[in-house]
Amino acid sequence: MPTLLELQNALQRSLLHRENDAVSAMLAAHVNQDRLDIYRNTFLHGLTKVLRLCFPVVQRLVGEEFFEGTAQVFIAEHPPRAAWLDQYGGEFPEFLRTFPPATSIAYLGDIAELEWAVNGALHAPDTESLDIGRLATIEADDQGRICFVANPSLRLLRLGQPVDDIWHAILESDDEALRRINLDSGPIHLLIERRTTGVEVVRLDETAWQFLSELCSGATIEIAVERAVDFDCANALAEHLAHGRFSSFGMPDASLTTTAA
Amino acid sequence: MRPAIISQASAIPARAGIGLRFQHHQIVLETRPDVAWMEVHTENYMGGGTQLRYLDVIRRDIPISLHGVGLSLGSAEGIDPAHLERIRKVAERVEPGLMSEHIAWNVVGGTYLADLLPLPMTEEALDVVCRHVDQTQSYLRRRILVENPSTYVAFGNSIIPEWEFMVAVAKRTGCGILCDVNNICVSAHNHGWDASAYIAALPPDAVGEIHLAGHSIRTFADGSTLRIDDHGSRVSDEVWALYETALARFGAVPTLIEWDNEVPPLAALLQEASHAGRFIGNAVKETSHADAA
After folding, report:
1. What is the ipTM of this complex?
2. Most CB contacts within 10 A, which of A63, A76, A195, B63?
3. How far are the Cα atoms of A175, B52, B133, B189, B230 from residue B219, in angstroms, in the given order?
4. Are B69 and A83 an interchain contact pair (Cβ–Cβ within 8 Å)?
């Protein structure tokens, strides 16, 4: 008699890889192994639907049938790791970049990466924005040592082609805009965030993007400003704070300072 | 310290409710339909953003039940503590009147198989499920209900009838039973059981909720048929009849109309719920009649 774990491993192999022999031998006499297809179909269709909702523009670009076939290969190779499907699909952009049948659309992986970032922003946990009043309590001399924690909905992407324009044009079915896109116009720098009105995708210039990236990855204001050459950091920082792009702040050396005092 | 607040308004009444899906958030807020309670899938509210905010508003007026699909009470390798914590967080925010899960599994080797998969009805599986129900109830500090599954396959090593398995889980852990009447109808057909005998075996005081849904019928090449629990249509006459049997045994129980695929307009769901409500009304009348006699 199989143990529970042996049975669960056998059914997993059947669902993911269509290896039915082991689990078929465990079925009761009245059960035809065709019935396993019901579970496999529910599993595959359910996850394909999750991917379709997360990557609608990828689907529009490749067509429904191709998307479904691609999703099935992806699901078998990268099944979900947790019962939290809002988080499922993170490997899909990289998968598309290397899945031979999909490589004919060179920017497909970049589109998927953008859609994954939008999905992440959409489902990110709710959080209070940083209380600007609390920043004012820090002595002016110490303010350079402040570092921020980014709002969990915020995503920063640097992509090789103008896929934000493609993404917008396809979502709005704007063929004219799609025709005008120059794929060789160079890399783009995007800020993706959830606002009260929905998820916004904003293009930043490279220096502005770099400055915000530094701040979001935990650099102190001092260091971020030092690295941003010819850039109005004060203005940019004020705008980020006004938009609630940080959820909290800290002073990396605060404990040292306190001890020294 | 912030006191734990469990709102009285969140208790689920012994009346008919409906499953709340994203498609209906807006219209529920706009029209404030007259429905006794609603149930949502816990896993759909684990992040932040708009959907959770809708639920925050809806639950001010309508008691909510949280129904989980991903805890995998039957996993041989244990339940995912991170998932249990996510469920606890949703419960903390939503303050549900009831919380439920399934007698099923869907996680093995760290992979989530995104369906409610069947368990062999063995002593080992019973021990595993009971251990995980205990773990869940002590972590959440509340009683949960466990739902009987619809199944398409059964295993050769099964030795416990499913209804006895359900009763044993409730008895050993103190959890309640979510009696899915449609699932009983589906599984009874698929395995040749007597659906009424299944219901007759369940202890009335353990049954805390009933689910009703539609199912479809698939015919195989050899002419045999299989019933599939797809939640994509109206409740069938056969299930309504079985529901009447269930109410006669259990008394008035909170009853949910589930319809997750090909989701119909809200009005159709409400219509199904009022139909269920009439059955509950009759059951109440008969009970008080019996009490008086």
Report:
1. 0.94
2. B63
3. 45, 40, 36, 13, 15
4. yes
